[in-house]
Amino acid sequence: MKIGSIDLGERPVFLAPMEDVTDISFRLMCKHFGADMVYTEFVSSDALIRSVNKTQQKLQVSDDERPVAIQIYGKDTASMVEAARICEEARPDILDINFGCPVKKVAGKGAGAGMLRNIPLMLEITREVVKAVRIPVTVKTRLGWDADNRIIVDLAERLQDCGIAALTIHGRTRAQMYTGEADWTLIGEVRNNPRMRIPIIGNGDVTSAEICERRFDEYGVDAVMIGRASIGRPWIFREVKHYMKTGEPLPPEPFRWYLDILKRQVSQSVERLDERRGILHIRRHLAATPLFKGIADFKQTRVAMLRAETVAELFEIMDSIPEKFGILE
User: Fold this and answer.
1) Whole-number Å distance between alpha carbons of 35 and 140
2) Own/partner pairs, 309-312, CB within 8 angstroms, 24+ separation
């Protein structure tokens, strides 16, 4: 599969862009475990052209994570074009436009998935951004605004006509947010539309290696994107790659192997930010990781872990888990 001239190999698996999750240290970790392409957190075009420092920091990319895409969102053509040019100067491999974020503070103001209610403007922004930069431009969106407006099959053709190099589709409507199950049938319909010439990337509810391979087999997508299932579990890409290569699940590692990865995430987060902010940032990963699920009477330890305010306190709690709960190494 290729996006522009970027060769991503057969059946590539991507790390989805996620706000407050896909910072550079997490992207590098997922890349280490086998993600074929990674995306930044989404970047507000308005904040970027106002030179908001926190937003500008999101443009930092490393050669070690390539190919990497910067994702932008906005609701105004001129600001999106200017932001696209600023992003290009940061030297990503790809520029991705977010027409899929469902949260109220974004979609409610007409950006992200809010663009699904203003298709002419969505197409105008896409055309102008494609014209403004030399790198490949891709789009990520949803099936439609709600169950009565699942317009993605027609919309995909119109976005392709704007000159995008690939399209990612999340298998839910904006109205669904992240509830219910992702519906991949329309993603498959887009992929199998003979008029579509660009790669189609499927996204939504890919939570295991087996599910990932089934999405490729059943819907014919060119790539699969993994989002929330990677939070607190960057090793999922290693599991996926092994399963797709061998047809067998990857044998589990010792408990402490996974624990050490989570501790490394803590250390990298603290190094990138500072102790207080770094710990606050990483709590989402510690709360979401499947590593602690199924451990009997773990609630009090989980609460203590998520309330820890120093690295020393947090690591002391984490290191005590195997012995405290009789987990064999």
Assistant:
1) 18
2) 309/276, 309/279, 310/275, 310/279, 311/266, 311/267, 311/270, 311/275, 311/279
3-class state of residue 97 by DSSP:
strand
At 77-126, the pLDDT tens digits run 999 999 999 999 999 999 999 999 999 999 999 999 999 999 999 999 99
**CA–CA gap between residue 309 and residue 72 (Å, rounded):** 33
Average pLDDT over residues 127-154: 98
Are 200 and 219 contacting, i.e. CB atoms less than 8 angstroms apart?
A: no
The SS3 assignment for 220 reads coil
Active site residues: 101
Q: Distance between CA atoms of 69 and 158, rounded to whole angstroms?
A: 22
Token pair 């501790």 in the structure block, residue: 263
Q: Give the residue from 121, 166, 111, 172 showing the smallest Cα distance to 139.
A: 166
Distant-in-sequence, close-in-space partners of 225: CB < 8 Å, separation ≥ 6: 13, 14, 15, 16, 168, 201, 202, 203, 206
Q: At 205, which amino acid appears?
A: D
Paired with 2 in beta bridges are: 7
CB 287 within 8 A of CB 308: no
**Hey, how many other C-beta atoms are within 10 angstroms of the C-beta on 197?**
8
CA geometry: angle 110, 111, 113, nearest 5 deg: 95
Give the integer Cα–Cα distance in Å for 172 and 21: 21
Q: What is the Cα–Cα distance from 209 to 216, expressed in whole angstroms?
A: 11
Q: Residue 329: what pLDDT?
A: 65
DSSP 121-188: HHHHHHHHHHHH-SS-EEEEEES-SSTT---HHHHHHHHHHTT-SEEEEESS-TTTTT-S----HHHH
Task: Please indicate, yes or no, whether the overall pTM of this predicted structure exceeds 0.90.
Answer: yes
